Here is the input.
Amino acid sequence: MTPRAAYVHVPFCRHRCGYCNFSVVAGRDDLTEAFLEALARELSELGTPREVDTLFIGGGTPTHLKSPSLVRLLEIVKYWFPTASGYEWTVEANPVDLNPETAEILAAYGVTRISLGVQSFQDRKLALLERDHRSREVRHAFDTARQHVSSVSIDLIFGVPGETLVEWTRDLAQAITLGPDHLSAYSLTFERGTQFWNRRKKGELLPIEEDAGGQLYERAIDTLGAAGWEHYEVSSFARPGYRCRHNEVYWTGGEYFAAGPGAARFINGRRESNHRSTSTYLRYLSEGRNPVQESELLDNEMLARERLVFGLRRLEGVALIRFQQDTGYTVQQLAGEAVRRFLDMELLEETATHLRLTRRGLLVSDSLWPDLI
Amino acid sequence: MPPTSGHLIRNFCIVAHIDHGKSTLADRLLEYTGTVSQREMKEQLLDDMELERARGITIKARAVVMYYPRNGDTYELNLIDTPGHVDFHYEVSRSLTCCEGAMLLVDAFQGIQAQTVANAYASLEHDLAIIPVINKIDAVHAQPDAVSQEMEQSLGFESTEILRVSAKTGVGIEALLEAAIDTVPPPEGNPEAPLQAMVFDSHYDEFRGAITYVRIMNGKIEKGQKIRFLRGETTHEVLELGQFAPTKQPCDLLHAGQVGYLICNIKSMDQVHIGDTIADPRQLAPALPGYQEPQRMVYCGLYPSDGQDFSQLRDALEKLSINDPSFDFEPETSDALGFGFRCGFLGLLHMEIVQQRLEQESNIDLIQTAPNVTYEILTKRGDTLQINRPQEVPDSGEIAEFRQPIVRVRVILPADYIGPVMKLCQERQGVQQDTEYLSPTRAILTYDLPLAEVIYDLHDKLKSVTRGYGTMDYDLMGYVAANLVRVDVLVNGNRVDALSIICEKSDAERRGRAIVKKLKSELDRHMFEVAVQAAIGARVVARETVPALRKNVTAKCYGGDISRKRKLWAKQREGKKRMKSIGQVDIPQKAFMAVLETGGDS
Here is the structure.
């Protein structure tokens, strides 16, 4: 079965934030043309356009592209991935870049959803995270998005060094006031290869305590839940009917196309990712070479295990009968002993139809997965 | 060379504290007597093992013959080298038995040190003629007069009999050789009596087999004859015999009073026992007195840090034990560390030497557990058990008496530090025996202490409280009943066998607390609270709690994260498999090592 979802990665950014480990180039707008050409070439390998239900253009900062380039990007994507009726098309945007002209273009090409990288409403946090916008710019960008697409999502980051419950509660309150349809709340992680990683090693940045991080996370779950957002995945909250369908494809074992530097695809049981370095990606395509850096064919058991773990990250959990039908394995076969242990410890619970995380299990879920994968 | 007549033979050794110049003096004597030329002189000829040179300690005894003409006679001087540390007390005593005299060497700056005293006492016990010598008189800070006074006061020498030399420059060497001839009595013993020879050392030669060092007490040995090891109960033919000068000089006969070596095609060192008596099977004489089995007082576990090197480690230990029969080992399995060996040593220094030799000669990375001493338990059924590791301690209900080895420790130190050192010894259940002043500024403190305390940290602590000026030495006094207990370590109520210790009951809380604290710091948080406890039987004496994991959840999960996370979690799963799981608590090897290597002290 051919995938019904597609991801396109746009690597350009004004600058690289200290915590970011995505495939990104900063201050290299001169590569825009080459990128668009490479992307077109990579996608042309599809042979024929593929109809999809969900599309996601992420980055980097897709909206960092100048209007003519943005138009060309959308043209290319739309050509190769024509959308079926009822589709969802998300584009990530930066509050500073999202002016009415940009939003107009996105809407004109059929983008239905904008994911705004707000991260915080607190200028202290924004400065620490090295974001190029400040709190007062968020409202304006949000309103612009609202006027042009039917669904707006915002990202928030919690647990930055020095963050208190008070500061985070203020972020949550301001987010609720702003009123997006969807909200992703990410706890800050220190990834190898980032400046934050090095600064933490040097002792310049002090991660918050584990217990404090737990408190912030629970505060988000409780506050957003009370305000009517459904907590449907570890870090994702949505008003009813506004879940990110594209991300749900990732989490439920669905397959997807992908293009752009560092982009990962999943087709016919094979997981692949492109070269993460933008310049290598561009060079490979200009030389007519395949930009894939890693490729791995998963056997049925591994596919089933992935589906179990990523399914459990969704709050509704794994539907047991459906799981067996789709994967050919029962959960019992895959990880009976561990599941029983986690049930005993009340980290997992069973409903009539589903196996799912308890609140406590959710909070420590990364410690469960090694026993299930 | 015709055999030397008995009255022209002098057998002696040099005894000294570490670094007081014993090896340099031996070199000068060899050079002065023409035994080796200056050109041949390798620095510190007698210490031919790199390790010994690095430590400045002569570990294995050797004997060298020198010839010295005087008044028309040629004297045969046999210099018998002795191990310089109390761990080798028994070997030292066998070497001293083969001598009639000893040069007691004292550094002109450092003065009398702990091993000076120990060596002097040992020499006196063996009725040796002692030649007191102050060495390094040419050194910048030398104070030979003060050192001379110390020697008069503490060891009872006359100032006129104390010789002053510089082994480095050769000053005073001739007078020393003259004194050796004049002071050291010639050996007694009857060349016509049945053969009695003392085995005082041996080493293994890859091509020739065992080289056995002997002192002929009575009778004689000839090439080609049969000899009998009375203790080893084996008979061999003498293929070669001779003396070292300092290389092998074969001859046809060794007679009473002489010192030399035998080669008998002995392929297993198990057959050569230090202290054994060699006799003539045709005319068996009684054994010489004083034989003992080597007494291993300190045990520790040695494990390859990579589990796959087990057989390599076994080979290395076997190779090492060929030349060092006083060290023994047997396989053991530790829950924590996998397959390894329980190794017994004469003492702490002996243990360190073996470990270093293993690492240097075999290139094996070792994990060494904290050492413990050998305890004795008298059970209520009347059996006496030797306890080499805490796991062997039976239930307290079965124990009638729990005994530990006590040593007499002599500490020589600047008088300023007497207070702190007394405090140190008292804290470790020391019982003071004596305080003696060597001079107004230096003293000897004598304490009886449990050996366990000495090996635990006494030496390090002594060095630190005396800023490196204190030296110590000890002699084993025997086993004494004590209020000892086994302290177990429990995680969530389950005993971690590998971490049990034996200690004084009154000390159990302090030791237990140190261990549980250390272990706590090495454990990851689990999904449940983990109690780390130290307990005597069912009574908990220390407790730490590792709180339950509160948050471990990474947020982001885009399409590209799926492979990455799957691999990360799979790797974590493999890591968990390598940990030891005790009652669902995962204990990394690193945690065992941290506790075992330090015994809980950081």
Remarks:
- Chain B touches chain A at residues 525, 527-528, 549-560, 562-563, 565-566, 569-570, 572-573, 576 (CB under 8 Å).
